[in-house]
Amino acid sequence: MPLLKQFISPCRRTFRKFATASSPDNICKHPNFVLKASQRYNEYKMTAYLYEHIKTKASYMHLEKSDTNKLFAVGFKTLPADNKGIPHILEHLTLCGSEKYPVRDPFFRMLRRSLSNYMNAWTFPYFTMYPFTTENESDYNNLMRIYVDAVFRPLLKREDFMQEGWRLEQRDLGDVDSEVEFKGVVFNEMKGALSDSNSVFENEWQKAMFEGSKFGVNSGGDPSEILRLGYEELVRFRNENYHPTNAYFVSYGDVNVLNVMEYLDSQIKEFEEKEKIDESGIDGFEIKGNETVYIDCPVDPIGEEEKQVKMVLSFYTNPVKDLYESFVMRLLSCLLLNGPASPMYKSLIETNLGNEYSPINGYDCNTPISTFSFGLQGISEGDVEKVKEIIFETLEKSMYEGFPMERIEAALHQIELSLKHKTSKFGIGIAQSLMMKWMHGINPLESLNLEQILNKLREELKDPNMFKSRIFKYFFKDPKFKIIISKPNKNYQKDLDEKESKILNELIKKNDKNKILKEALKVKQRQEENEDENILPCLEINEISKKGKDYSVLTKSINSTKLFLRETETNGINYFNAIIPFQNLSKSDLSFIPILSFMLSDLGVTTKSKAQFQQDIEQHTGGISFSPFLSPNLNDSNKANLGLSISSYALANNTNKMFNLISEALKSTNFNDIDHIKTLINSNASNAMSSISSQGHSYAMQFAASKLTKPQAIDELWTGLYYVRFLDMLKSKSIKEISETLHFLSSSLIALKDMRMFLVTQDKESVEFSINNFVSGFGSTSFKDSESFEHTAQSGSHSFIPLPFGCSFASLAIKAVPYLHKDAMALSVLAKLLTNKFLHKEIREKNGAYGGGASYSSLNGIFSFYSYRDPNPLKSIEIFKSTEEFVKSKPFDPKDLHEAKLGLFSAMDSPVDVQSEGVLLFEHGITDEMRQERRNRLFEITLEDVYRVAGNVLGSSDSSAVVLGKDDQDSKREFRDWEVTEFRDLIDQ
Questions:
Q1: Quick one: pLDDT band at residue 781, thresholds 50, 70, 90?
Q2: What pLDDT does residue 8 have?
Q3: Residue 899 catalytic?
Q4: pLDDT tens-place string over residues 97-112
């Protein structure tokens, strides 16, 4: 992960940086809240106010900043005692109706009744959080009321527990003797989440490191343990934890704080203060270091059988309440592990002992006692001891040799850049980061104080022993560590299935079948209740601006290069994108474009060492990335513009250096570095495979679409299952031949004419000289055409691809109309209506999948159905196909249409990062006028328009279905009438 993302991301193994200054005087006063502290943070033009509710002692933090994308969130510490998944299931159940809003799922229904650009709920190992963001004031107040009522007055119906948690249910509810199976949204979600080897490894690592504490369990729930959870136990847990005294509220942006206080007070003042939950989660936990723990993991389908061991050496380090020490340890993690310049990369990755760092890697400060991990995956069992020796040898060498000051300055430059980098989702990121520390008992104001930490750091950097002393302290002076080793088990999924089957049989024996059916019918009745949705607030269409957002972009030509230039406030950063176009490549050459992309990004150059080139990039830019680019024709979805995309950004005074580094990467990539090419292929192959279990619905949708149009077939080569398999295949090919192919493609592409560039800057005059120099360094000849990739549509295809996962993913794709077609917006409305009024209930609530719905990509001209972590994918395909008959009954009313439009307007008007303003014009030729025309059509669409386009598309024979399913004989029998394609055979498709 790039340094910048590590420093600013609020997710696992990360921390965030802010700065402080003098105290403010703009304080909001409410008689029932007391201000505990406040702090100004000049770097972010933000002020933090920490309040406490006098009666209940609820905590409330407001982050005042000029930002129209307002946030509200509430969190509770929810430390689980076991692996039953209580906090996770409770998070779901909390959003299944409340006292004031007694409808079955106000959360999902508000997704279509508001203009929020983010609504979610998160379960972490030690707390649960409910956040949303919106730019609309009425929306903000509506959603705040729903969230607060949900957390303090939930209905918690038993039937909702059975739907969201787990239940027994006959496959045929009309036959009491039909096969009984497990159902439940969270149950199936966790079966899918724990299907791939990386997720299993991370889960078992957490258990091993913190065994005997509340951090040594899976807060999401282990499927077999979820089946032991009773409804009453969940209710007790909720009553103990969801109380105003234990509540942490956060608001951010242009918020009317007095209104928030007034509403919060009205909702919580009836509660009495209770003893606050302040346990750390490791109370009584005793570190038992220097142990080796062995675990089983699923087999990776693309890994070499003899090299599928994962190994990590994890040290216990500092208490996370020491914010400065945690910051320094994060910096040390970057210096030891990140990129070709780091000692661990050189000794572990470049040696090709394994194919990638272990899933747990680096410094993790998200548990009360932080950890520091080093390890590899894709190694042989006989190399475990060798890896351990290399880790200690590398640490010892780093302790004595230290790190070049240039590398340290490069890391600090990334922090400086992150402080200036403007994002549209700043509020959600800072709220999560703040909550993660606050729940550990860290002063929330101090957790935002980066300036103080940086000042102390720069002072300590004068000490040459700064990092040496810490390496010695944590890794050599009486170190406490554990070694976790996973071995592949070919029967892993089979064993889980047998365990589940055994539990199922035991529960069937304990429960009368008639009782099981009676309970299942109660759930079905609850799912099919006609409820008064008018209880829920809903924005009116007339509250939406008729005029969309415009982003003025200037265009000019420099030689044969077209420049798109947007001038706006960027906080001193210049954002750069370029596209080098090409056409008429063979399938083989097209397959290598994504490989070429990550080689250009990471391989290094002939003019300097890999370490020096990486250091130069980090010291002068926010990173340089290359990627395949595909833009379907706006009038014909069978055609597309292809290219190689380049992106980077830098402080204004580093713009020349940014362009020089991009030129170096394009002209001087070291394709003779055979060993590093092998390393990068192995690493990317491992990462690609591990993404399937979490993004399987996307892979299924892409594979299905690839059967219908040439652009989508090319996209499958670049981002789909074909790409994953192609990477796997390259591992056994001649690296020398791969090098020659990449060198040829690279030298051909960078000589292309008609490059186009996009620059977002606050001072266009100052960058024009740099742009001219950059452009003049490239040739102006066209790429020589080769044999063009041919594609034949395979309408009506049904593909089953078995994979070693516990749950499935299904998709049905239908060829529709392109972006500029008059029916495009009506199809977007249809997708929303089908999801809201039919698919959510049928796929998630009844069929037990974690998610499902319909989507229409107007750019691709594809109408898609999908299911996510699905226990019954064949049933889902039937449901998708049944939408044609469903719509024929004209089931939608004006209110449904209103809600669908709101959802689409929300997406249209969602704030974008500054570097993305105007990017649609640059990438796809979509003008402000085109976007406004689509907006106008959305206002005007009627239900008759929706029914008309539904009749044209649903049921079309120009379609393709795919299921990524369980790799077992039962599944293969179930899909015996489909084309069954093993993963290893995808390369021939």
A1: low
A2: 35
A3: no
A4: 999 999 988 888 898 8
Taking the mean position of all CA atoms in its chain, how far away is CA 474? 32
Please answer whether residues 2 and 623 qualify as being in contact, where contact means their C-beta atoms are separated by less than 8 angstroms.
yes
Q: Which of 91, 189, 500, 917 is catalytic?
A: 91
How far is it, in rounded angstroms, from Cα 132 to Cα 665? Answer: 41
Domains in the chain, ordered, with CATH? 33-281+521-535 (3.30.830.10), 300-425+446-488 (3.30.830.10), 552-989 (3.30.830.10)
Q: Is the pTM of this model over 0.90?
A: yes
The residue written with tokens 């993690």 in the block is 333
Side chain identity at residue 541, one-letter code: I
Active site residue 91: yes
664: Cα separation from own chain's centroid: 31
Q: Region of 584 please: left (phi>0), alpha (psi -120 to 50) or beta.
A: left
State how far the Cα of 97 lies from the Cα of 323, in Å rounded to an integer: 39
- Residue where the block lists tokens 């007391």: 34
Contacts of 788 (CB under 8 A, 6+ apart): 583, 584, 585, 586
> Considering only CA atoms, which of 842, 850, 835 is closest in space to residue 878?
842
What SS3 state is found at 10?
coil
The sign one gets for the Cα dihedral 227, 231, 236, 240 is: positive
Q: Which residue has the tokens 């993991």?
A: 297
Q: How many CB atoms lie within 10 A of CB 463?
A: 10
* CA–CA distance, 483 with 465 (Å, rounded to integer): 28
Report the C-alpha gap between 839 and 861 in whole angstroms. 21
pLDDT of residue 105: 86
Residues 6+ apart with CB under 8 A from 350: 340, 675, 676, 679
| Structure tokens, 749 | 């592409």
Q: Are strands 247-252 and 59-65 parallel, antiparallel or unpaired?
A: parallel
Could you say which of 135, 164, 169, 845 is catalytic?
164
